[in-house]
Amino acid sequence: MKKSRIASIVIVVIAALAGLFVFSTSSLGTNADFKLGLDLAGGTHLSYKADTSEVDSGAIDEAMSALRDLIETRVNAFGVGEPVVQVERSSLLSGGRENRLIVELPGVTDIEEAVNIIGKTPELEFRLVPQDLAGGTPITFDNTIFTGLTGRFLKSNGARLQFDQAGARSQTGGTGGVYIIVQFNEAGTSLFSDITSENVGRQLAIFLDGRLESAPVIQEEITGGTASISGSFTPEEGRTLVRDLNLGALPVPIELIGTQSVGPILGTEILNAGKKAGMIGLLIVITFLMLWYKLPGLIASIALAIYVILMLTMFKLLPITLTAAGIAGFILSIGMAVDANVLIFERIKEELASGRVLEDSIRDGFSRAWLSIRDSNLSSIITAVVLFYLSTSLIKGFALVFGIGVILSMLTAISISRTLLISIASERNRKLFKVGFKNS
Amino acid sequence: MWIVKNRKIFFIFSGLLVLLSIVVVFVWGLQPGIEFTGGTLIEINYTDGAPEVLQIESRLDSLAIGSYTIQETGDNGFLIRTRDLDETERETLLDTLTIDEKVPEQERITTIGPSIGQELRRKSYLAIGIVVLAIILFVAFSFRRVSKPVSSWKYGFVAILALIHDIIIPTGFFALLGHFASAEVDVLFVTALLAILGFSVNDTIVVFDRIRENLSNNKETGHKEPFYEVVGRSLDQTIARSINTSLTTLLVLITLFFIGGDSTKLFALTLIMGVIFGTYSSIFLASPILIALSREES
Predict the structure, then answer these.
(1) Do A39 and B263 count as a contact with CB atoms less than 8 A apart?
(2) For chain A, which has fewer Cβ within 10 Å, the N-terminal or C-terminal residue?
(3) Would you call A274 and B90 a contact, using CB atoms and an 8 Å cutoff?
(4) Which chain B residue has its CA at the smallest distance from A262's CA?
(5) Angle between helical axes of B265-280 and B227-259 (0-180°, round to 10)
(6) Is the per-residue pLDDT at A167 higher than 50?
(7) Nearest C-alpha of chain A: how many angstroms from B29?
(8) What is the band of B272 on the pLDDT scale with cuts at 50, 70, 90?
(9) pLDDT in tens, A104-152
(10) What's the CA angle centered on B281, arms B278 and B284, to 5 degrees?
C-alpha cells in the first residue's frame, strides 16, 4: 500500500480516538471537563487595587505575593471551586504603576457575598483592660488601652482552631472544648512577650473592627509567640473567629475598583448559543467545500473536522478556559482554516492545467502555496500575540484560541490535507481535481 | 485586468466611503461602553412578570444617584446603567427594585471604576498602534527583495493603507449604529478591529505574493511586461482564491451573528464588515495603489 495511504489511515484513527476522548468525558449535553470562563459558567470577577504606599518598593513583590496567597486561602476556605487569584501589575504602558489583585470566583454570583469572602481589611487589636475598670462594666474599645499589638503582627495564616483534649485546660482558662491558637511573627512575639510579662493578671481584650471578641486573663508571660484563646464559643463561632483573625493579617490594604458578575443562566445561554453557532457554521462550511471543490473538498472537510477535534482536545488538555469571545474566536478560526486549503487547491489546479502528473501537481501545489500560507497567517498570529499580552482575561481567551487556531489550521492543512490528498490521488480521478473557478 | 483598467472608479468609491465614515465618527461619535467610561451596569430579570418601566424609573429617581439609563431586554428584563456605585449604593438600588413584591433576579452586574476605563482606552490605542507597526515591518521585510519597480517599503505602506481603510469603515458604521440603535463600543469591538487588522492583510499578501512571483518569473525569463500588466495578471490569478476564503469566513461569521447569542452579535457584525471590506480592499484597492506608486517612481 502507498506510504501515504498508511499515513492517512493512521491519521484518521488517531483523530477518531481523540474525538472519542473529547466527547466521552463530556456527554454533549454537559461540559464537565471543558474549563469554562466566568462569562459562561457564571461567577464573579473582582478587581482590587492594592495600596502599596506604605511598603518599600523593594518589598512590593513580596507583599503582593503574600497578599495573593492570603486571599487565595480565604477563598479556598469558603469552598469556592477553582478560584483564580492573580496579581496584576498594570505596566508602564498603561501610565501608572498600580498593583492589582484579580479574583475570579466561579459559581459565586452574589457580589456582596464575594466581597465578604475576600473581606476588607478589618482591624484586629489587642488592648489592655485597665485595672481600675469596675467589675461588671462592659469592656469597650474606648475604655481599653492600646498596646501596639495588632493584626499586622500575626504570622500569615497564624490563627487556627484547636479542639481540647479531654481534661486539658487551655492557657487562658475557660472551660470550652474549643480554643484558638494564634501565632505571631518575630516582632509580634517580642511585643506579646513584653505585654504579657508586664500585665499578668489583667485582661487582654481582643477587638475585631472595634468589636470585642473576647477578653481572656493573662496568666503568665508568653515568650513562645503563641497565644491560645478560649472562651465559651462554639466550634462554629470558633471557626469564624479563626477566619476573622486570619483576616486581620492582610499585608496590604485593598480597595475594590471593578466587579463583573454573570448569573449562571445567562452564562449557559451564551454557551449553548455558541455551541450551536459552531456546529452550524462547521456544517455550512463543509457543505460549501464539497459542493465547490468536490473531491478535494471532501478531503478538506475531513481535514477540517480533524482540526476541530484537535482544537477541542487542546482545550481540554492544556487546559484553555473558554469564554464567549474565545468561542467566537474558535468559530472564526474554522472559517479561516479553510483558507490554506483553498490556496493549495487553486495552486494544484494551476499545476494540473500546465499538464503535469497529478501526484506531482499536488506536491508542488503544496510547496508553492506554503510561502503564501505562512506569510498570510503570520499577520494573524502577530495580532493574536499583541492581543494576548495587552489584555484582560476575557480577551486573552480569544487571543489564545485564535492564535492556536491559526497555527493549528495551518499545520493540519499542509500535513493532513496533503497526506490525505496524495493517498487518494491517482490519474484516474485527475478530472475531479479540476474544480472551482475557471482560470481566465 | 478590468480591475486595473477601472481603478479610478474604485479609488473614488473607497475614498468616499472612508470620508463618510470619518465624518460620521466626528459628528456622531462612538458610544463608549461601560468598560471604557466606568460605571455600573445591572441586568435584572423579573421571573414573575415585570413591573412597569415608569415604576422602576420613579424608584431610581428617588435614589438620587444621578443620571441613569434603562433599557428593556427580553420579556421581563431590564438593563440599567448608572455611574460607578459602591457596594452600599448597589445594595440599596437592588432593594428598591423590589416592586409590588416582585423580586428581581440579578443576571449580570458589572462595576468599573474610572481608572480601569481609562487604562482600557489607552491599551486599545496602543494595541492598534503596535499591530499596525508590526504589520508594516513584517510586510516590508518579507518583500524586501522585490525592489523593482516598487520598493519593498511601499508594499508595506500600501498594505497599511488598505488596513486603515478596512478599520475606518466598520468604525464609521458603528458610529452610525451607535447613533440610531445605541450600539456601544466595548472591548469586543476593539478585539474585532484587531482581528480584522490581522487577517485582512492576509488577502493583500496573497496578491502581493503573486505579483512578486510573476515579477521574478519575468526576470528569469527576460519577459518584459509593464508593471500594471503584471499586477492585472496577478489579480486575475488570485481573485478566485480571495473570494472563496473570504466567503467561508463570512459564512461562519453570519452563522455566529444570527445564532451565536447576544454577547457576540456586534462582534460578529464588526468582523463581517471587516471581512467584506478587507477582501474588497485587497482586490480593488491595494494593487491599484501599487500601480499608482510605481508610476510615480518611474
Answers:
(1) yes
(2) N
(3) no
(4) B108
(5) 170
(6) no
(7) 24
(8) very high
(9) 888 777 777 777 767 655 456 788 888 776 666 777 767 777 777 766 6
(10) 145
Which residues of A fall within a CB distance of 8 Å from B90? 111
A437 pLDDT exceeds 70?
A: no
Task: Look at residue A439 and tell me whether its pLDDT is greater than 50.
Answer: no
Confidence band, pLDDT 50/70/90 cuts, at residue B142:
confident
B126 contacts in chain A (CB < 8 Å): 93, 390
Contact B113 A258 (CB under 8 A): yes
Other C-beta atoms closer than 10 Å to the C-beta of B200 total 28
Nearest to A379 among B105, B135, B255 (CB): B135
Q: Is A336 an interface residue toward B (CB < 8 Å)?
A: yes
- Residue B138 and residue A377: Cβ atoms within 8 Å? no
Residue B34: HSE in the Cβ half-sphere, 13 Å Cα cutoff: 22
Contact A258 B116 (CB under 8 A): yes
Decide if A439 touches B, using CB distance below 8 A: yes
The percent of residues in chain A predicted with pLDDT above 90, rounded, is 0
The Cα of A405 is separated from the nearest Cα of chain B by a number of Å equal to: 13
pLDDT of residue A29: 45
A421 Cα to chain B: minimum distance (Å): 19
Q: Is the pLDDT of residue A169 over 50?
A: no
Tell me the backbone φ, ψ of residue A110, rounded to 5 degrees.
-95, 110
Which residues in A22-55 are b (16+ Cβ under 10 Å) and which e? beeeeeeeebeebbbbbbbbbbbbbbbbbebeeb
Q: Give the side-chain half-sphere CA count within 13 A for A342.
A: 27
Q: Which residues of chain B does A369 touch, with a Cβ-Cβ cutoff of 8 Å?
A: none
- Alpha carbon of B88: minimum distance to chain A alpha carbons (Å): 9
Among residues B175, B187, B174, B172, which one has the least CA distance to residue B18? B172
Burial class of residue A333 in the structure, from the number of CB atoms within 10 Å of its CB (0-12 exposed, 13-18 middle, 19+ buried): buried
Chain A stretch 366-385, residues whose beta carbon is closer than 8 A to a beta carbon of chain B: 371-372, 375-384
Question: Side chain identity at A7, as an amino acid letter?
Answer: A
Mean pLDDT, residues B234-253 taken together? 84
pLDDT tops 80 at residue B281: yes
Angle between helices A264-317 and A324-353 (to 10 degrees): 50
Considering only CB atoms, which chain B residues are within 8 Å of A269?
A: 261
- Give A305 to chain B, closest Cα distance, Å: 15
Residue B7 CA to residue B287 CA, distance in Å, equals: 9
> Are B109 and A261 an interchain contact pair (Cβ–Cβ within 8 Å)?
yes
Give yes or no for residue A94 having a pLDDT over 50: no
